[in-house]
Specification:
329 residues, alpha/beta, 8-stranded parallel β-barrel, 10 helices, 17 strands
Length: 329
């Protein structure tokens, strides 16, 4: 399951972890922050990931009011002296008229950059819009993405948007973040889900109590999803509460498992990284991929295969269905 595809070209050794048995955990570069020299979600950061040979990366997408979208984690366009505009309020023209230092990249510009790069980094496009995309916008965005369709995974929390995307293109790689339906929130943040999170911290809108029943509900929400993207804390508590092979059950439903976001410097980050790897996750989303990879290599036992002195095969195409919850996402 963890070896999702194979073959050349080789991926940068700092964009993956290799377990003692030789299986791979892909490090998904959060907001395309690789070296830290470029702004997150910028075209320069996208180029850097490709030219470094990063296996997997991620950017954020908001639809604009009329056409196109912006690649940005926040949906605000800052206009000096004129106030701010939210993505759903701004037009493509508004973006192009913004001062260069306040101008987010357009989706169309992102596509143009990616299609010119030879290295096939797989990029997750994290759909930030909480409301479902209208069918005509689904068709428009898929048309924009057509030149790089084989290189992207479209993901997000809105299951209706994801179903519409899958219906429009049955071969599209889809990732599902189930945070609107199943999530765990630490005590100091439970006010963010007032009225929805129970005293145990769980937001559970599936209507089910057992793990298997909850997973069945999530699978029916987005049947086409080949990846499940779980907030790190939610994954950890799911594993504790289930007291079973959580990743095995997720794999049995046909999902590759991505946990987000795990960075060096976080509380107990080494132990949490090692636990996620040992649990069998397929991907870890991180803003500190090189540091995470080096720390893992430094602390790992000797193994028959690994990235030291060489590199690993880059995953190509869609994750295999039957082979292998939003913090700063």
């Amino acid at each position: 399951m963890t070896d999702a595809g194979g073959g050349p070209p080789a991926a940068h050794p700092d964009s993956l972890l290799v377990r003692p048995d030789g299986s791979t955990v892909w490090l998904k570069v959060h907001r395309c922050v690789w070296s830290g020299r470029h702004a997150p979600n910028s075209l320069d950061s996208v180029r850097e990931c490709h030219r470094a040979g990063v296996a997997r990366a991620e950017v954020d997408l908001w639809l604009l009011r009329d056409t196109d979208g912006i690649i940005d984690h926040d949906d605000l366009l800052h206009r000096p002296g004129r106030g701010n505009l939210r993505a759903r309020e701004m037009s493509r023209r508004d973006v192009l008229r913004a001062p260069p230092d306040a101008q987010p990249a357009l989706l169309s510009e992102f596509v143009d950059v990616v299609r010119r790069e030879s290295y096939p980094t797989r990029i997750e496009i994290d759909i930030k819009d909480e409301l479902p995309w209208p069918p005509q916008r689904v068709d428009e965005i898929l048309g924009l993405l057509a030149p790089i369709r084989e290189r992207v995974t479209l993901a997000g929390c809105n299951d209706e948007t994801l179903r519409r995307l899958a219906a429009a293109d049955g071969q599209l790689s889809i990732g599902f973040n189930p945070a609107f339906h199943l999530d765990w929130v630490p005590l100091h943040r439970r006010h963010e889900l007032a009225g929805t999170a129970g005293p145990d911290g769980w937001l559970n809108r599936t209507g089910q109590q057992s793990l298997s029943a909850r997973l069945s509900v999530l699978r029916k929400l987005v049947p086409a999803a080949d990846e499940l993207h779980l907030r790190l804390e939610a994954f950890e508590h799911l594993t504790i509460d289930a007291a079973t092979d959580t990743v095995g059950q997720l794999h049995a439903h046909g999902w590759a498992v991505d946990v987000w976001t795990l960075d060096t410097g976080m509380t107990r980050w080494r132990a949490r990284m090692n636990a996620a790897v040992a649990a069998g996750v397929d991907m870890i989303t991180t803003t500190t991929a090189p540091n995470l990879a080096r720390a893992f290599r430094d602390g790992a036992p000797s193994r028959p295969v690994g990235p030291t002195g060489g590199s690993a095969a880059m995953p190509t195409g869609r994750a295999r269905r039957h082979s292998p919850l939003r913090e700063n996402r």
